[in-house]
Amino acid sequence: MPAMRVRQAIATAIADEMRTDPTVIVFGEDIAAAEGPFKTTEGLLEEFGPIRVRDTPISEMAFTGAAVGAATMGLKPVIEIMFMEFLGVALDQLVTEGAKMRYLSNGKLSVPMVVRASVGGGLGFGGQHSQTLENWVAATPGLKVLSPSDAQSAYSLLRAAIQDPDPVMFLEPRVTYAERGEVDTNLKMEIGKARVVKPGKDLTIVALGQMTNIAREAAAASSLDIEVIDLCTIVPWDKKTVFESVKKTGRLVVVEEQPQSGGWGSEIVAAVSAEFFGELKSPPIRITCPNVPVPYNGGLEARFLPNATEVNYLIDQLMATGKAPQPWWIREGF
Amino acid sequence: MSKGLDRRKAILSDPVAQFERAVEIREFENQINALFASGTIRGTTHLCNGQEALAIGLASVLRTDDPVSATYRSHGIALALGITPESAMSEIMGKATGCCGGLGGSMHLCDLELGLLPTSAIIGGGMPIAAGAALAFQVQGNDRVAVAIFGDGATNIGAFHETLNLAAIWKLPVVFICDNNVYAEYSRINLTTPIEDLHIRAESYAMPHFALDGMDIDVVREGIQSAVDRARSGGGPTFIEAKTYRFAGHSRADQALYRPEGELDSWKSRDPLLLLEERAKKSGKITDAQIADMKVRKAKEIEATVALCQNAPEPSAKTMFENIWSRKVSQ
Ligand SMILES: Cc1ncc(C[n+]2csc(CCOP(=O)(O)OP(=O)(O)O)c2C)c(N)n1
Ligand SMILES: [Mg+2]
């Protein structure tokens, strides 16, 4: 199996789809000639040419909507929103137009498109270029929302996303782009299916994207036998895998890279609480960022983001007291 | 008067001071570039080398109560408006002494005393804000003027067109300045835009518009002054396209290998610093020897600023919870 960086896994997934499916086209800002600001589209222009691989002007609204329109007429556009925040200027076309096309055409139109966006903090890009904004897209019926955590899931999930007949939002944790991992190009991953990345019996962590890597790190350092689930798909999320795990461990911790308010983790905690009411060994908890913008300063950004030490501290508190522990900003009086 | 206001006043008319500010901006950017390259500063940065005459020309024409809405490429604009090198550089280093307390970074400078609104790192993001500031002045009945300054690439985003139209129909006291430095990221403007003279886009909004040589400060000053005068006297918005050139890559990692051969050199022959130096000499107020001394002094000052900022305190964790709402609410 070849080892590749996450960004190469992404380019490879797109290329493999383009080779097998001539309806796949790719566009975005500086993704063709320059091969992408994060080099996630390396080699595509050269192999597939300028009809199928296009640079766009700085016009997210137009090119996101153009992807919707092209998708309704039989293409499978894969577009790149360089930083998730830029979806803000195009949101209508994705959530209010694209995600409603099938419904408002009485089921006649399909919108098989993928919107790829880099997300997340950790690189010092400041308040307008560091958010995951998962919750912007998680509450739109009609959209599917995915996020890989490593090279294998980037490859396999992106292929699944491109093949899918519905609009898919594909959130790529920017900090992972340079990370290497083995990729089995024959391995299929399904939308809506989570991965147990580390089995365990004491406690279940559900995480997404880069937080999966944090959860793995925490589990490796913990004296507990923690099961780590990489959710992979936020919408529609994999109840079966999560429920089976919690049934076994009796404890749930969700780790999210976004502000506490309005996160998808609330959805999971609510569903688990309802399903296992009275059976859980401890209250299900969420570990998130505080409800503040992403600070630029390196030390503060590191504190802002959930990390393995904090995850394990909270888990230890949970185990010791049986009560939901306070996040660091409450403990420290902020 | 504050240091910033003093610094602003200094460049209002004196060609020597204007040249000196340009030297300062160039030194500043070169140091920032080195600090990023050495890993001392994290994140990303966008240098304004080649665009100094526009920044200083703009600052010398505006009043300090005329707000400017600018972009992530605004170290030069901030310094021209009067922000101190310490304030800007410590922000870029993420220090508590920075203009945003170290929480903003290179793309987010701000100094309200000097009229610098928080700079936006979203393309087109600052344009509606400037129109809104102008709306406030119109409603309040005062004679303040708002300025939006943005890149050539921004002329392709929705906010650009919506804002021009809105400002035109409401006759807002706003000046739109498109800093056409030929590139948007790694794309030459002709690859993304079917017209060469971007200012003609304002024609369809029935807005007065023209292009000017953004490398020549006298031309810049005259052009912006006429637009500001129109806005101040109730004549509504103007669109100015300043033709400049981005001497550096888009951001720190970019070597700009996509430029046509010779293009950079040909623009460098009209480097605003060369033109400003000639102009300063022509004023008869400075000699060659004094210029040489000044350049050395400026370089030393900026070096000292680097050292000062490196030793400045980091912001405390508490600051990340401040300025979220008008009053702090614990969550
Ligand atoms: C809405 C949005 N889309 C894309 C970007 C990414 N981006 C940052 S700078 C830039 C190029 C802008 O070029 P231009 O407007 O000419 O300004 P310059 O960088 O030359 O000053 C792009 C595409 C962004 N910041 N915001
Ligand atoms: Mg430009």
How does this model look, in words?
The complex is a heterodimer of chains A (334) and B (331). With 334 residues, chain A is α/β, with parallel strands linked by helices. Chain A has 2 domains: 3-182, Thiamin diphosphate (ThDP)-binding fold, Pyr/PP domains (Rossmann fold, 3-Layer(aba) Sandwich), CATH 3.40.50.970; 195-331, Rossmann fold. Chain A is built from 13 helices and 14 strands. Chain A has helices spanning 6-20, 44-52, 60-72, 91-97, 101-104, 134-137, 151-163, 210-221, 239-249, 264-275, 298-304, 308-321, 328-331; strands at 3-5, 24-28, 53-55, 76-83, 114-119, 144-146, 168-173, 180-182, 195-198, 203-207, 226-230, 233-235, 252-259, 285-289. In chain A, the strands form 3 sheets. Chain A has a 7-stranded mixed beta sheet with strand order 3-2-4-5-7-6-12, sandwiched between helices. A 5-stranded mixed beta sheet of chain A has the order 9-11-10-13-14, sandwiched between helices. In chain A, strands 1-8 form a two-stranded antiparallel ribbon. In chain A, strand 10, helix 8 and strand 11 form a beta-alpha-beta unit. In chain A, helix 1 (6-20) packs parallel to helix 7 and helix 9 crosses helix 10 (264-275). The relative contact order of chain A is 0.11. Chain B is of the alpha/beta class and 331 residues long. Chain B has one domain: Thiamin diphosphate (ThDP)-binding fold, Pyr/PP domains (Rossmann fold, 3-Layer(aba) Sandwich), CATH 3.40.50.970. Chain B is built from 12 helices and 7 strands. A 5-stranded parallel beta sheet of chain B has the order 1-2-3-7-6. A two-stranded antiparallel sheet of chain B has the order 4-5. In chain B, strand 2, helix 7 (158-169) and strand 3 (174-180) form a beta-alpha-beta unit. Chain B is globular and about 50 Å long. The mean pLDDT of chain B is 97. The chains are: A alpha/beta (334), B alpha/beta (331). At the A-B interface, helix 3 and helix 11 of A face loops of B. Thiamine diphosphate (TPP) sits between chains B (46, 71, 73, 121-123, 150-154, 181, 183-185, 246, 250) and A (29, 58, 60, 82, 86, 89). Thiamine diphosphate sits between chains B (46, 71, 73, 121-123, 150-154, 181, 183-185, 246, 250) and A (29, 58, 60, 82, 86, 89).
